[in-house]
Automatic annotation (TrEMBL):
Gene3D superfamilies: 5'-nuclease (3.40.50.1010). It comes from Microbispora corallina. This is Twitching motility protein PilT. CDD domains: PIN_Sll0205-like. Residues 3-118 form the PIN domain. InterPro entries: PIN-like_dom_sf, PIN_dom, PIN_Sll0205, TA_system_RNase. Keywords: Hydrolase, Magnesium, Metal-binding, Nuclease. The keyword RNA-binding does not apply.
Length: 124
């Protein structure tokens, strides 16, 4: 299975947070095609800089250096994100939805707005 992780899922996985179900954690640990978008690192860095996320200063580097596969942001992703209906106003989540749709990935998330889009979702 090919999956893309939402930002909160990455954070829960990195911190071994019990919020993340063991079944999802095992899937993330065992699947070879687990992707993280640069948008996730961008979101984390912004939230840290404005004080919305208390985390180690090197958190974005920890995410970058994890075993996850990078899913680069491409032109098609930006076009798709811009054309999505405004069911969700968060630009980071909209980009993740677009990437998952364009690349045929399932998005692992607990965000209740994301299933409103035509994208495969695995509830975290």
């Amino acid at each position: 299975m090919r999956i893309l992780l939402d930002t909160h899922v990455v954070l829960w996985w990195l911190s071994d947070d019990p919020t993340l179900a063991n079944e999802i954690k095992s899937m993330i640990d065992e699947e070879p095609d687990v992707f993280v978008s640069p948008a996730t690192l961008w979101e984390v860095a912004i939230k840290q800089s404005i004080g919305k996320l208390a985390a180690p200063d090197d958190l974005v580097e920890r995410i970058r250096d994890s075993e996850f596969r990078e899913l680069p942001v491409r032109f098609d992703h930006a076009i798709e994100a811009g054309r999505l209906p405004l069911l969700h106003r968060d630009p980071f989540d909209r980009l993740l939805v677009a990437q998952a749709r364009c690349e045929g990935l399932s998005l692992v998330t607990r965000d209740g707005h994301i299933p409103k889009y035509d994208v495969p979702v695995i509830t975290a």
